[in-house]
Amino acid sequence: MGQAIQHGHPIEIIDYSDATVHFNVLGRSIIVLNSIEAAHDLLDERGANYADRPRFVLFEVMGWGITLTFLRWSPRFKLHRRLLQASFTQSACKAYRPIQIEEARRAARAIIADPKSWEILLRQFSTAVVLRIGFGIEVQEKDDPYIKMTLDVEEATGQGGVPAGNVVDFFPILRHLPNGIARISKLFRPLIHARRTKPFIQRLHDAPWAEVEPSIRAKEQPKPSFVHTQFGRYLANEAAGRPNDATIEDLKGAAGAIAIAGGNTTWSTIIVCILGLLTNPDARVKARREMEDVVGVDENGDLLRLPTFDDRPRLKYLENVLHETTRWQPLSPLGVPHATLADDEYKGYRIPAGSVVYPNVRAMSRDERHYSSPEEFCPERYDPVTQGGRGEPLPNGPFGFGRRACPGEHLAMSGVYIMISTLLATMHIQCPKDHHGNDIKPNVEFSDGLSGVPEKFECSVVPQSRRMKELLRV
User: Is 419 helix (H, G, I), strand (E, B) or coil?
Assistant: First the structure.
């Protein structure tokens, strides 16, 4: 076996290599993978041993108990993953394209009518898509209660700290500490936050289900959705006396994962993409020119039509923009940690069973062995050198690794594609100007926590032409 990990101090750091660091914190082995190679070697190639999660005590307090992301390796995890994977394969996601196109164009019309509300209207788009797909519920106004619910959940997770990294995660008994005592120390602020925001998570799990459950039970032909399919199957089995693998609580948890994780991932990625295009306006110009070449323009320079999913294979630069978005600012910078099911050995060092393993996606995205000038938003980096690019590899890990990779990646990125392509087709997306006519550049700042969300920034959104307004009304 490899070198044993020593237990002499409350916190001990052992460098396995430049790519892997071990922390021994209060007897718990915490391993941070800082390179794509290390993550691939362990989380992908040895995925069966790294498929567990540590216990997320703080997130349990917050109400995330039965969401796929946080479930431990178990029959229940396998059940939830099977339920979601079948519905969100790359092939299955093609069925959701009409919904995504309709909602993207609805959002674009709304932004033209109210450009100062562009950010909340993009939130409306992402929420509307996942609620229609997950529950058959339609959201058409930016002040819809479901938009407020998703914003509340965003605050809860964005301010919840690093998963499995809080004092309550190390000492679960502390979850029962009274608020009066917990407020004495900064160490327990995340616990206070988790208790305060628990109703937000619970509400977004319960409210959509409560809205559609009666109609499904009454067989009132609700709009097709994940819940309609899965709960309808559950009721049919129940009526026929057949056993159900999933409980109603399982179905609510799986559907909640669609509403919460799916909507937030899509929205956040769209916002990061816009931020990247503001920091590199040349990229926006190139993406727009490519769209004109693919879609075609009339004598006035207006697009002949709006982009669709059929155009995506030919919009290669735009695809690079989307790849660069996920590399430039990963939404979960430290990743959601894995846990080892059994002892392992890597490069001569022993990794004990139960170790917490973080895939440091941000470090991977900044690895200068792969990415030159990594802080730049540069879609050209993925083009071959023979075509004037840098020949750098596509991002690895923004949606996780191994058996814990996010099953909603294809749905999320197809939503990002159609919304960004619609915005580029119909609007000028620019930095606002100061009194002297100079661009007001956004600050690239992100929240800490499970999902890093950009701090608010200003963006000027102006219609390309009257023709684009007319196309959006079709």
Answer: helix
With a cut of 70, say whether residue 449 has pLDDT above it.
no
User: How sure is the predictor about 439, in pLDDT bands with cuts at 50, 70 and 90?
Assistant: confident
Decide: 20 and 345 in contact? Cβ < 8 Å: no
Helix axes 263-279, 118-135, angle to 10 degrees: 150
Q: Map out the domains of the chain as residue ranges.
A: 11-473
Instruction: Please state, in angstroms and rounded to a whole number, the distance separating the CA atoms of residues 62 and 56.
Output: 10
The verdict on pTM exceeding 0.90 is: yes
Percent of the chain whose predicted confidence (pLDDT) is above 70:
95
Q: 190 near 160, Cβ under 8 Å?
A: yes
Cα 135 from Cα 213, distance rounded (Å): 9
Average pLDDT over residues 90-102: 94
The listed CATH number (1.10.630.10, 3.30.300.30, 3.30.360.10, 3.40.640.10) that belongs to domain 11-473 = 1.10.630.10
Tokens of 175: 């979850």
Distance CA 236, CA 393 (A): 48
- Element containing residue 358 per DSSP (H, E): strand 356-359
Structure token pair of residue 199: 């109703």
Q: Measuring CA to CA, which residue among 309, 335, 333, 336 is closest to residue 416?
A: 309
Of residues 266, 216, 260, 333, the one with CA closest to residue 66: 260
Q: Using only the alpha carbons of the chain, give its radius of gyration.
A: 23
Strands 356-359 and 338-339: antiparallel
